Amino acid sequence: MPQSIVDSPLPTKKPTPRKAEAPFNREDADFIIRTSDKVDFYVHRLIISLGSGLFEGMLALPQPQGTDLKQPFVDVVEDSNTMDAFLRFLYPVQDPAISTFKLLRSVIEAGRKYDAPQILAEMQKVLAHKQFFSGDPVRVFAIACLFNMEELAQDAAIEAVVTGRVLIGHKCEDLDDIPAASYHRLLQLNKRPVSKVKGKAATVDPSKIGPFCGRAVLPHPPPIFTTRRPPQEVASEFALAPASHPPDLVLKTNDDHSFLVHEVIIRFASPSLLSNLSPVDTVGQSSNDIPDTPKIPTYIIPEPADVTRVLLKWCYPSSPSPPAITGKRYLDILRATRKYSFYKAEADLRSTWDRYMISAPLEFFFAAAQWGWQEEAQACARELIDTKDDLADIEKLYTSEMETITADVYRSLLSYVDRCSAAASARMKTGQIPTLPLPPASVRNSALFTGDRQVLPLSTHCDFSLEKPVLYLEELLHAVRRKPSTLMVIDMARGRPVQTGPAGAKFLVALCRASTGSDTTERVMEWGMKFLEGYGNRLKDALSEVTLELPPARCAAS
Fold first, then answer.
1. Global pTM?
2. Domain final position from 275, 304, 329
3. Distance from C-alpha of 291 to C-alpha of 255, rounded to nearest angstrom
4. Gap between the Cα atoms of 246 and 487, Å rounded
5. Residues pairing with 195 in the sheet
6. What are the pLDDT digits (tens) for 210-231?
7. Is residue 475 part of a domain?
């Protein structure tokens, strides 16, 4: 029987490089730049060395053995469109036309990468041109922030605010790439009143907002003075071991505390701790060292003593697990467990996330987002909603983590908050509240009904419409729109009797005033509470369907 023949794939033919358009195809060129799409730019070393610090340094190095000295070349990651524009700005020829934001940004990136200040200056002029500046000031703002063009970023931010272009749902890749703090400051500027003076262009005052491109100058916290513990006391926590197994390692913290530990325990608890630390001279006999100890290897750990102490307690089987920690140090310790692969400690800490998260939900949100912890990040977002009286206050919040994480993560939080608000305030009919009993006659005859007032006598539920709610019901919807939480309607906490929230209390008062007839206030209130309880459950279901759309976390460009 003949054997089956499996056809092997044909080898992929590599594209043949082609020459660039004039003037980068001259035979008198002495160097070739080959782009990612295999276009060869024939250039002159003198010109590119004068315009680019990186090329100057690279061309000054001796060429590797085997290089074609007549026409040496270098491969670059830029495509031919970017490199063509880049070189035309360097050469004494007519400047190229930059017609898209994508090309503009790629040329700026090349200018920064190749240390070409002339390119950066020219590109800033292009970015400030009316074509871009007036066409999409938000994107101009974003690119200016990415490349540290503070004056242009401020001008673009003012233009965006004055022309009403600052929208949370604004689709812009460049905006997603800037630091979250830069976008936060744009939102703060957007909240300020626009000044309109006759005969002058409208403007908005950017003072005291902080730099858009760099870190805000924050007031320094008061210094924390701690008394250094005696070395013997520090060592005793982890040095208590049988005489046959004395400590054989010292961990020295950044605040100059020393911990005597056992290498075998450390390596079991963390496979990467010691490989990530810097070894120093072995401990000797001096006033700063632990007395009466032999010389043993010492490693410098960049964490402070209170963080290191907790990490080590997780390592030693004789230590309580998990050790007691403070809310202020929770994230610092958790970061250290992830940094050094303390898997058990990380799992224990993650299980207590909700307990500590409530102390600083915004800071915890960015930490969870950075680690890709979807469930924990959404819990933080919900906590922010539940603890703020008005959603608008969330945009005012700031934490230093926003300086180093990209704006797309921050924008995902604001988008989630907006979508919760929309879900909470969506119109619904009382038919969607299946447990709602037939209302008293005085309620049925009140202004609460806006649709068909005819209700069958044997009906077990109320089917009147909330599509066009009257004033006091509109106030209830407005309240949950500002704070999309069941707490605004009714408190359904475990172990507590059902209680109305602040908006629900106003609804009950208005309901009693609007009701007519012989029904008692108690009967009207009883139905009103049933309505609020059903509405609260329906609201809870609606909010549970809103999911945080968390993008992959990235570090913002510095």
1. 0.80
2. 329
3. 19
4. 57
5. 203
6. 899 977 654 444 443 334 444 4
7. yes
